[in-house]
Amino acid sequence: MTRVKPLAAAAIILGLALFATPALAGDKTEQYYYSYGANGINESVPGFQLAMSISASQLPVKMTRVDAISAGFGKIFIADSAQARINVLNGETCEFEASIKLIRGSDNKIVIQENGEQLMLKGPEGVYACEELEEIYIADTAGERIIVLDSKDYSLKKIIAEPSNFVGATSFKPSKISVDGAGRIYFVVQGSYEGIIELNPNGEFSRFYGVNKPKVNILDYFWKSLASDEQKQKMAKSFAPSFSDIDIDSEGFVYATTFDISSEKMIFRFNAKGENVIREEGYLPLQGDFTRFFEFKDTPSAFTAISESGFGAYAVVDKTYGRVFVYDFDGQVITIFSKLGNMKGDLREPSAISWNGYDLLVGDKALGVVHVYKPTQFGLAALQATESYSKGEWAKATELYERAVALNANFYAGYSGIGRNCLMQRDYSQAVYYFKLAQDSKGYSQAYNGYRAESTQKWFPIYFAVVLALIGLIVYSEVRYVRKSKTRF
Amino acid sequence: MSARAKLVSDLKFMLRTIGHPFDCFYELRFRQKTNWALVFCIYAACGLVAILRTYYAGFLISYDTQHYGVNNWQLFFSSLFPYFLFALANWSVTTLFDGNGSFAHVVMVLAYALVPKLVCDILYIAISRYVVLEELALLSAVSAIGLIFFCFLVFAGLCVVHEYSPLKNIATIAATAAAAVVILFVCMLYLQITGKVIGFFTTIFTEIMKRR
């Protein structure tokens, strides 16, 4: 016995040593194309690839910064606050068409302001092409005004300066701007904690809209609950995180994003009441990259711009890792692409994003470049499937989802889409199969519920017979037991 | 008594332990009724159930339908590790607190207490294949019942084998938790240092190989 114990101890120590592995560098997840699923990172087929880059060398004017991009009327509008210009490009060929700096009236004469100066852009950080109103809205941030131009000849329609009924601590420095079909103007002011500002079509101040909730820190909450009023005044206030960019979808919902890491949510879709109604049905919340899956990433994604495609899919661009995330309406990842770097198509400080049909235009503030990314076969199938689904063309959507899945077997939103179609056609067993592939628990649950009800109905006589037999068995044994005990006594 | 008859009677005794823990643990401890083969079989079944759960639990329990990177041995041993740790910690604590049970006794108590938990876990795995999201809460009740039963049996068993009053038993179980943390800490420390040492020698080895 005395000799066994040291031996056992030695065996345990050796066994433990087997578990010890030397730390090895290398991150197999550090790959260029991936998406997120139930198990974390999944390899993915590229969804977008660089088609061309628009930089100052292709333009007759200087372009040193790209603050905002907007596509509309078959044209691309690029706001450059450093040169104080709006550059207009052809939407298809991306050739230079015009550059707006001096604003002309409808009589083609330069507008002279009341103080005798020519009306000139001072530093526009936002531009929005409103197709419904055929107007171009320029947020002239340095000039503290919004300039509205006609979409055809870029002549001045109106200037919206700070409205007389404007309230709040926010200064009137419109940065990113969006306009809905009714002419209501929404804009954000960088660093404002009061929310998005909404103006009526006539330029009057309407309200602050969609206040962003900060994360609640339990420790801070505890200390603040103990602190006296005087102490509270000295403490650092936690302000609502400001929005970095907004966009409006075809139904008038306002998409917004923030790069403040103290914010609880990163991407928003506000309804008319200013409530966030974004769908987060993916496996993981809408936060871009998840640093816990990477060895060399520790700061979260910071979204600087957002763009809605017109069919439910939306794209956000992150300045921490230079990534573009394309989500579908349910918040499932369609594709992730691009990165920070110095190679062709890489970004340094992404600041703007816009859809141009199925293409994505990504603007870089530091490089003064707009990258045009075109969808690959897979990307196109996935986007078109999302579009068909949002239009209610189920059969076409299923066909496209099937194509997308054939091109990229890790496209989970595709399996989900096929599953949803099977569910609508009451083909429950197929729906269960696809929802399992999609690792979609909600969809699976719905489909399985139908499947179970169906099979219960089908096998009901057998279930019934088994239950009857069991009851019979119990009754029989009871009867026999009673008879036996009668004979015994 | 033939081997087969003994096995049957031991199995019957195992089931009786569920209903009459204090009496049965007394007999297991003091009248040498423990069937050690059975104890090891129960632990093996426990590891097996952990593996079964990974492969056969319903989709809503484990999303992973493809089972890439599942290591059966790792599953097996990692599911048994907590019991081993508890037994070790409890034995070390009770030795200091005048407990009369040995390490083997604690291991035996845990094994016999695991029986209802295993039954509930198997039921859980079987039912989980036929539930939808709304019924998941009901399902978790099944495994919770097993867990609570297990805790009660462990409590009863430890009372008997260490000859403790209930209050003292609670105190030693609390101390067991602390001891388990200490053991884990020492293990981690050991693993870290061993890793460093191995890394050091690997580096030296690669250096020599490259300088040749």
Would you give an account of this structure?
The complex is a heterodimer of chains A (489) and B (212). Chain A is built from nine helices and 25 strands. Chain A is an alpha+beta fold and 489 residues long. Chain A folds into two domains: 34-375, Methylamine Dehydrogenase, Chain H; 408-482, no CATH class. A four-stranded antiparallel beta sheet of chain A has the order 3-25-24-23. In chain A, strand 24 (359-364) and strand 25 form a beta hairpin. The longest helix of chain A has 29 residues, at 460-488. Chain A is elongated and about 120 Å long. The two termini of chain A are 60 Å apart. Chain B is an all-alpha fold. Chain B has one domain (3-176). Chain B is built from seven helices and no strands. Chain B has helices spanning 3-19, 21-30, 36-56, 72-96, 103-128, 136-162, 166-211. The longest helix of chain B has 46 residues, at 166-211. The mean pLDDT of chain B is 91. The A-B interface holds A 13, 16-17, 19-23, 38-39, 436-437, 439, 441-442, 444-446, 448-449, 452 and B 59-60, 63-65, 130, 132-134, 187, 190-192, 194-196, 198-199, 202.
Write the layout of secondary structure elements.
The complex is a heterodimer of chains A (489) and B (212).
Chain A: H1 4-19, E1 34-37, E2 40-43, E3 48-54, E4 68-72, E5 75-80, E6 85-90, E7 96-100, E8 124-130, E9 135-140, E10 145-150, E11 156-160, E12 176-179, E13 185-188, E14 196-199, E15 205-209, H2 218-226, H3 229-234, E16 245-248, E17 254-257, E18 267-270, E19 303-308, E20 314-318, E21 324-327, E22 333-337, E23 350-356, E24 359-364, E25 369-375, H4 377-391, H5 394-407, H6 412-424, H7 428-438, H8 441-458, H9 460-488
Antiparallel strand pairs in A: 1-2, 3-25, 4-5, 5-6, 6-7, 8-9, 9-10, 10-11, 12-13, 13-14, 14-15, 16-17, 17-18, 19-20, 20-21, 21-22, 23-24, 24-25
Helix pairs in contact in A: 4-5, 5-6, 6-7, 7-8
Chain B: H1 3-19, H2 21-30, H3 36-56, H4 72-96, H5 103-128, H6 136-162, H7 166-211
Helix pairs in contact in B: 1-2, 1-5, 2-6, 3-4, 3-5, 4-5, 4-7, 5-6
